[in-house]
Amino acid sequence: MSGQIAAKKRDFLLVGCLTLLAFALRLYDLGANSLWYDELLELDVAQASLGEIGPQLERHAAMPLDYYLLHGWTKLGRQEVWVRFPAVLFGTLAVPVIYALATRLFNKRVGYLAAILLAWASFSVYYSQEVRPYALLLFLTLLSYFGLWQAYQTGRLRYWGLAIGGLAGAALTHYFALFLLLPIGLFVGYRQLRHLKEKEFWPQTICFIMCLVVLLAVFALNGRLRHLYNVGGRFSTVVSQPESLNVPATDKPNKGLGPPQELAFFTNSILTPLATTDPTLLLVHSAFLLIATTSLAAAKTRQRRAILLLLGWLFLPIILIYFFLLQRGTFFAVRYILYTLPAYLILVAYGLDTLVMAVLGKPHLKPGDVSFGPRKLLYVSLLVLIVTPLIFAELSELLTYYATGAREDWRAVGQMLQANASPDDAVIAVNAEPALNWYYPPAKAPFGTFNQSEPIWAVMKQHRRRWFVLSSYSFKRDEGLRQWLKEHGAVTIAIDRRVVVHIQQEGLSAGELLAQVVTFDLPQKALTYATLGDQLRQYGDLETSRTFYQRAVELAKTPAQKTDYQSRLAALAMWP
User: Fold this and answer.
1) Which of 35-44, 153-162, 172-181, 358-367 is predicted least confidently?
2) What Rg do the C-alpha atoms of the chain give, in angstroms?
3) Residue 371: pLDDT band by 50, 70, 90 thresholds?
4) Average pLDDT of 88-94?
């Protein structure tokens, strides 16, 4: 008994350390970057009143759980670190849960390995630092599979409460959680068919049927049954009419081609995120996955069931998501498959453990044995030798991720408007209203307000000075507006490669307006100063242009940027 207590203390300590490591990796530099477009879309909905959240979600093809959680959370704070913290929390909690699941599926060795791999996984860290529902979906999926496995292994139906709760929560988080019903349903059906005459299996099947009823109720209460029926009905044509996948984009519901139909897509967009971008280590990951899969032939019954459950969890949702997006004509985003990551990592961990055990021979340990003899030392040494390159590969990807700047800096846009815009100014964000609703509330407008010309001109007529926020998200809609701004003396304030602010004032020429802009409190960005330096040079203010180029050189973050801005500065000497 004392040995078992000591083993539990050791497990608690080690899993606790891994959880703290996962927390630190997900918390690191959390508020450094601005919230980006997709995060702001979610926050814009979440900050509405409770009664307004539901009706907006259908437009975003979203389920409500994460939005309602954020609604309450944002009442306590609006800082980037604060609003991203729930994702950090769910991503961190996934580590002890994957340990518990992998341990029960196989053994503690696999549990530790899976927890180590998930703690470091850049794929998980990335989506644990975003105000998006995917870290929550990952956590709830793990809970549902833990409940499912324990229900069958212990025979205790109470675990179905955890499985049903996890699946219902996952379905309330994202539509694609429904694709988990296929692997789970196959697992339940297989167990039932193998044990038709054994009464204890019928309650398990009834619990799964109850799960389906609960999910139907979840969609009915959210008013999504009809939508689910319509979309599901169209998707079912793929089974009976596979040729429908290859119809022209214009004939697909979302007017796109969908994900590419080529092998390279599966390597680059599916295997690489789940494993690593390093080609050699990707082969190592794949080898461990292959070992786990081929071990089906020699595995014991319990292990065989566990491997089949994980393979179904890994592959079937990915296949369904791929064909669904292909049928709909919608682009593939790697975040859609994040909830299959635990299955992948547990299989890799099991393959690794199987390989090491094949080299060392199977151990014969007594329950609660906490001794650390030569054989365990050899096992740990061999694991460290194999796992270290995998961890360093993930660390390299994490360092690259941490060093990467924001996709777009909406925070800088909001700060500049707060510092320089007056209450009488018009602020028009084309297809980016949610960004300003969060970062510059005085410009609050419903999403899509300025997607058409009429509301833009209507607002412009009411204000002499106008700010226009254009971005890569509005590029297809604002071509005419950009041309109008060029012809009517607008000054361009570049924020980054994706977001540009134009200021235009009735009755002022570009040169006169530029003289005002250079006195503004501007974002301390090299591109901002370099772009204004170009315009100052164009209008003959060479002295101020030189000052702005010098500041751009000082703010440059890369040698290429610095060289570019130095060449512009040097060219001023030859300007007439």
Assistant:
1) 358-367
2) 28
3) low
4) 98
**502: pLDDT strictly greater than 90:** yes
- Taking the domains of the chain in order of start, what are their residue ranges? 2-403, 410-574
Select from 32, 148, 26, 37 the least CA-distant residue to 429: 37
CB atoms within 10 A of CB 407: 18
Position 398: which residue type?
A: L
Measured CA to CA, the distance from residue 438 to residue 40 in angstroms comes to: 7
DSSP-derived secondary structure for 155-202? --THHHHHHHHHHHHHHTT-GGGGGGHHHHHHHHHHHHHHTTT-GGGH
Short-list 127, 563, 110, 125, CA closest to 335: 127
> In percent, how much of the chain has pLDDT > 90?
72
Classify 121 as helix, strand or coil.
coil
What number is the average pLDDT over the span 243-254?
83
> CA dist 22 to 69, 96, 392, Å?
22, 10, 15
pTM for this structure? 0.93
Calpha distance 523→35 (Å, rounded):
16
Cα separation, 567 vs 559, whole angstroms: 12
Distance CA 26, CA 128 (A): 6
**Are residues 86 and 65 in contact, defined by beta-carbon separation less than 8 angstroms?**
no
CA distance 504 to 485: 7
Cα–Cα distance for residue pair 107/100, rounded to 1 Å = 9
Q: Which two tokens stand for residue 127?
A: 């989506």
DSSP label of 426: E
CB-based contacts of 176: which residues, under 8 Å, 6+ apart?
Answer: 317, 321, 336, 339
Element (H, E) at 545: helix 542-555
Amino acid at 209: I
